[in-house]
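Task 17 of the worksheet. Students: predict the tertiary structure of the chain below and write it out as structure tokens. Keep your answer in the requested format; marks are given for formatting as well as content.
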Amino acid sequence: MIDVMRKKTDTHRVAVAVMPDAPIFELAVPCEVFGVARPELVDPWYEFQLCATEPGATIAGGFAATTRFGLDELAAADTVIVPACTNVHAEQPADLVAAIVEAHARGARIAALCSGAFVVAQSGLLDGRRATTHWMHADELRRRFPRVIVDEAVISASDGRVHTSAGTAAAIDLCIELVRQDHGTAVANALARRMVTPPHRDADQAQYILSPLPPAASSSLSAVTAWATAHLHEPIRLRDLAAHAHLSERQLTRRFLEVHGRTPGDWLVRERLRRAQELLELTDLTIDRVAAQSGFATAAGLRAAFARHLHLAPSDYRNTWRAA
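Model answer:
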């Protein structure tokens, strides 16, 4: 097993807003991702603070948020996370909104989980930006904040230093993506494995499927993606994927679009890019060997894929994360 542990000198401070009666799941997610020390991955991990908007506030389910931190600490953080709010139809706490604006003006990263987008939207930071929220609240977000470019078809959206996620489980995806931005693909993947969650749900994956696949179809797609992931270093054609899924090529393409929001070919390129990123971060393999082991065959093919999708060269990517 390759060691992914990294040391760093500056500790990134993550502050999470705690509002009275806030839903517990979206509050628990950043606590799990950023609030649990993981020295086996990065040492030190994040400095984590729960910041109450009101002293002694209780959250959903009768839980008490016991914390000595408030909005002053929130405004001074490096990353501010706003979990789901209680009421999307109400005005959000003005002092919380002001603290978010102050943090962003200082250069902080802002992340809204689920209906937390309503809090950030009230600050004006989403004006002119593409943002998402739980699909059930998308129309209300669009109505109340017409300057926000609402996209309810995706699980997360990022625009500069402002990030939003769809509902519930999508909060996990966004938080792991923030870790990937800070520490690279290998650390984010290792964290996802510890949390027993997929590390690779793309931001533009659909929030929901109007016509759910039957169990047999879903399991056949899982089987073929597992097979492909184990054979990324080999040539894989559409007909190979279709044969392993016991589907026609047309059926396979339709189901990939329904589940992954992309064609089998696009999905395969993304998986190979992620394999290449891990190899660049964690090994001393030459670019030629990284290309071969991730399925791009040649260094030229790897460079072309990096340029098209990541907008940088493989060597620059390696240098960035080796420095980290």
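Marker's comment: The longest strand covers residues 13-18. The first helix runs from residue 24 to 34.
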